[in-house]
Design a protein that fits this description.
TIM Barrel; about 325 residues
């Protein structure tokens, strides 16, 4: 199976982590704040993570250049447009892009709703031109505190017609899921689907609590689900989908070796595993690369690739009519 030309699904892709290096150079120059680097090759050493680092927190520190690239709504529109264009270049036909309004707007005091308008313009234009179905997910960046979480909930409620889901992200260990039960209540009541980053840098108690206390339908990464048989069984019984990202999980030190990644074992144990990119710009990868890692390093067979793709279509938060249309037109390879 030629993975590059096979239609694919990416459910876990951060907008801030999907920016082209040349675009970063252009945006900083156009804003009158040129970077010291003039080529993508020069910028790569400062703006990408190409080998494993000591921790998730060390990787997150590399986001500063990308974070500061959202100078205005036009910059947000360009970044969003190109993110969808890059999906199409990799034959990803169904995707969800997630972003944190606090994170991307904070450096330049950008109005959250103006940024959202730019992102929506870019996504909608690129989706039409390149035939990619895209859902948007708003993120609470946990390290900004509970007041920021409340603002992000209010933001999501204002944009229910444009969002398909809601997320919590950032370092998980200081911020257990139970902290967010009350603040997320309006999201749950509004019917916005919930995916949360847990099980990436913390132990299995975090995904357990995310499933039990928050009722999360999906877990961002969820690697530590594999480290406790009881949590594995809980995820399987609840039908919780894991948005696994092998290269990211290796480079953030969630797994010591790529061959240690538990995606294949969890899939064989009946857990709803999906394979995603996380931050393709930051890690210099695409979804084809991740599926090749699964095949070459994790022992996935073609049938396994079909299963994770089926899981992703089923678990996507976009509406059922859109999923049915995309599947009919692009996913005949699933049978």
């Amino acid at each position: 199976m030629d993975l590059k030309t096979t239609a694919k699904v990416d459910l876990h892709r951060h907008l801030e982590g999907a920016i082209r290096l040349q675009t970063l150079i252009d945006l900083y120059r156009d804003a009158g704040e040129p970077l010291p680097e003039s080529t993508p090759e020069e910028l790569s050493t400062r703006a990408q993570v190409l080998k494993p680092m000591k921790s998730l927190e060390e990787v997150l520190a590399r986001f500063e250049i990308a974070q500061r690239a959202f100078f205005d709504p036009d910059a947000a529109e360009r970044i969003a447009y190109e993110a969808v264009e890059d999906l199409a270049l990799d034959d990803v036909r169904l995707a969800e892009l997630r972003f944190s309004p606090e994170f991307l707007c904070e450096p330049h005091g950008l109005d959250w709703d103006d940024a959202m308008a730019g992102i929506v313009r870019g996504v909608e234009r690129a989706s039409r031109e390149h035939d990619v179905a895209v859902g948007l997910i708003a993120i609470v960046s946990r390290n900004y505190g509970m007041a920021s979480a409340e603002r992000t909930v209010d933001f999501a409620l204002r944009h229910l017609d444009r969002l398909v889901g809601f997320d919590l992200a950032g370092d998980e260990r200081p911020y257990p899921p139970s902290m967010y039960v009350d603040v997320l209540e309006p999201i749950v009541k509004a019917g916005l689907s919930l995916t949360v980053h847990y099980g990436e840098s913390g132990g299995p108690q975090f995904p357990r609590e995310a499933i039990e206390a928050l009722g999360a339908l999906r877990l961002g990464h969820g690697v530590s689900v594999a480290w406790d048989p009881e949590v594995t069984a809980l995820a399987r019984e609840r039908g919780t989908t894991l948005e696994m990202c092998p290269t990211s999980n290796h480079r953030t030190n969630a797994v010591a070796k790529i061959g240690d990644h538990p995606a294949r074992r969890l899939l064989d144990e009946g857990v709803r595993v999906t394979i995603n990119t996380d931050n393709p710009g930051l890690f210099a990868i695409d979804l084809t690369h991740e599926l090749e890692v699964c095949r070459n390093d994790l022992g996935f067979r073609d049938d396994d690739l079909r299963r994770v793709t089926e899981n992703a279509i089923d678990a996507s938060f976009v509406d059922d009519a859109t999923k049915a249309d995309v599947r009919r037109r692009h996913f005949g390879w699933l049978g």
